[in-house]
Amino acid sequence: PRLHEALLDLPVFVDGQDAGSIGSRDLTERTRFRDQPFAGAGLRCDEQGRPVDAFGRVVCDNLLACGALLAGVETTLRGGGLGVAAWSAGRAGRVAASLVGAAAA
């Protein structure tokens, strides 16, 4: 009945709005060659990549999000999704290494 992250039930956002407050009709455009709002749905994160709630509070301290899980990363029409995935995965690796006190490569 609502758009949500399936594994941990983390809050999902579409264009800065909580996806739970958006009707399913507002998640799609009638023309298929336009950006589809649901395709950019994802997790909002802090500067380290940790998922946050609607108030910007970190939801889980030891969880880092990257790639297509991030809000606003829409890989269907614009491209660039692999670049975002690579950059955000690198950031996640560096942050994870710092969390356990290891030196990041």
Description:
- There is one protein chain.
- This protein has 105 residues and is mainly α.
- The protein has a two-stranded antiparallel ribbon.
- The mean pLDDT is 83.
Global mean pLDDT: 83
Q: Give the structural class.
A: mainly alpha
- End-to-end Cα distance, whole Å, is 43 Å
User: Whole-number radius of gyration?
Assistant: 15 Å
Oligomer: single chain
Strand content: under 5%
What overall geometry do the principal axes of the alpha carbons give?
flat
In sequence order, what are the helices and strands, one letter per element?
A: EEH
Helix coverage percent: 10-25%
Question: What are the segments in which pLDDT stays under 50 over at least 5 consecutive residues?
Answer: none
Main sheet: which strands, in order across?
A: 1-2
Describe the sheet with the most strands: 2 strands, antiparallel
How many E-type strands?
2
Task: Tally the helices.
Answer: 1
What is this entry, summarized?
The protein is mainly α. It has one helix and two strands; from the N terminus they run ββα.
Features of the shown structure:
105 residues, mainly alpha
Task: Please render the helix and strand layout as text.
Layout: E1 13-14, E2 17-18, H1 81-99
Antiparallel strand pairs: 1-2
